[in-house]
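The aim of this short unit is practical: by the end, you should be able to scan a pair of folded records and say something sensible about each. We start with the first protein, listed as its amino acid sequence and then its structure tokens.
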Amino acid sequence: MSEPGQEPKAYEIRAVRWAPGAKQAVLLSEDECGRAPTAEQPGDALTWVHITAKNIPATAELLQSRFGFHPLEVEDALSNRERPHLHENSDHLFLAAPAVWMEGQKVVYSEVGFFVARSQLVSVSVQALPLLDEWFARWQERGPDVGRHVGFLLHSLVDGIVDSYYPVLDALEDQGDALESAVFKGKPVQVKELLRLKRRLLEVRRRLSPFRDILNGLLRRDLTMVSAESKPYFQDVYDHVLRILETVDVFRDILASVLDAHLANVSNRLNDVMRLLTVIATVLMTLGLVAGWYGMNFKHMPELDWPWAYPALIGVMIGIAGLEVYFFKRKGWL
């Protein structure tokens, strides 16, 4: 955080470097971060620079001037609206990955841009990502395990991003199971809850489908920055993405079935209500017929002069209503 009265920082840079044979990584200052060494320059150490953008234009200027990245790649790295893609330059490889995490019941997405050079990886995000913070602290203690090739570092970060979808899917699946249980128990369910959950699944698929193509490109293209030794690890990440997308598709089908079952339950309850109202209307209609018959204003109606006419008529009406109720129960309407 900036001190009171000071301008807020336009970006936050954290960097760590692993030298061959070192037992622990070395933290770098902001001034030590810059362009990666080329193939003609010495530079066996592996460097990871992570930049959290707080001011987009200032961060874009930093990435272009100090690191020398292409403006179009910088624009894609600092935007959450661009479709992730894979692009190879002469001295680095650019790709973007969709990170995800839960904030309460809300699913939050943010794109992470990766600029992969021969011995340096620069990651860029417009939000502070808990996943990258965790991995940054973890990799500081694992220098000997990382120093073989930048592709292994890229795999670790990408694999962590993909694995972060599993807790999100578990949370969405729990919500779906609760709605499914309520529907099949006949409890009232809000249709908007089902549709909201379905939209969340569609958003997961929309985010991960382009990234599946990126991983496919990493596996099938002959990329300088991704060694053949690290490609089997990316194949594992690719399999995880396929599994997540298949789970999303199955879950969407289940939600569609739950929605159909809910609508069928609503229709059945409506039919039950209409059947009950029909029975009540039929009973009242016959009673109204009897009452209307003796409500006619004729002078010569012998029954009107009988001393027991009124209670007899009430008894007849009760009998008619009882017979109708018995009939409808035999038919299964009640």
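Turning to the second protein, read its sequence before its tokens, just as you did above.
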Amino acid sequence: MNKLKPSQILFFSFILIIFIGTILLLLPISQGSEGNLSFFEALFTATSSLSVTGLSVVDISRAYSKFGQTIILVLIQLGGLGVMTFSSVFMLLIGRRIKYHEKKILMENLNRDSLDNIVDFIVKLIKIVFLIEFIGAIFLLIRFKQDMALLDAIFYSIFHSISAFCNAGISIFPDNLLSYSDSIIINFTISSLIIIGGIGFAVIYSFIDKIKDRKKESTLTTKVAVRITIWLLVIGFFVIIITEYNNPETIGTMSFFDKIMASFFQSATVRTAGFYTISVDKLMPGTRYLFYLFMFIGASPGSTGGGVKTTTFGVIIYSIIAIIRNKKDVTIINRRIS
């Protein structure tokens, strides 16, 4: 195993977890009311869950039982934080020391620049993530318990909190979140979890350090990731509300406040998550093109989301600005990059 490169170990670990997840989803106990899932349907679901892609060829709410949905939830959590991250935590729990080669794998998995304090970073990271997901689940529970039994509401709250933070966008409601388009709690909580999960672990860690020590300077990556994320949220919001304002198939029949809420929610979720509170198949062409661009950009480095990353997009934009201004160097927030 030590002869394999960190990227190779990550790849084979990913394949192994997908295979195990597929087998578990094929078990009779995992089957829902629709049942009789094929191997490739289970494989697709396992792959989509672990890669937090959010695509599905079956109705998750009916095709899988609570046990099957729990397997999907575990795969989402593993995919969001990284298989190797959880493996390292397990090794620490059983008292096993993490070797240098394993630290290299973790560094690559978490998009870290160095091995310094990597173990402490992971332990704090897991604690922070679970705390955020727990708080998110509590807020979702406030609303979900109004529509279902308490135990069901708890399960739905945990599932959607983790799915949102990990930017998976997988829902166990038949219509995703369409039924909650007018719920302030659901819209605010889900969008907040998506944004926090998509901003990147390093940025979250940096914010916490900043709270502890206000004199500590944030890294350039953190500043660019936050700035571009805010820009995209604002631009997305205005484009959606303007293009969809009179579209009766999406937000046209909503109240003005609900239009604002739905537009912001879609702006937050479209880049990496995939939840929806409006009929995305009825969107205007202009909104669809925006969605294509946003999905291409994706989330920030070291986050639970995919895409080319906000920082990459930011560098491209700043480079274009430098060319337009006939500048020799590209400057980002008073820092020159080469």
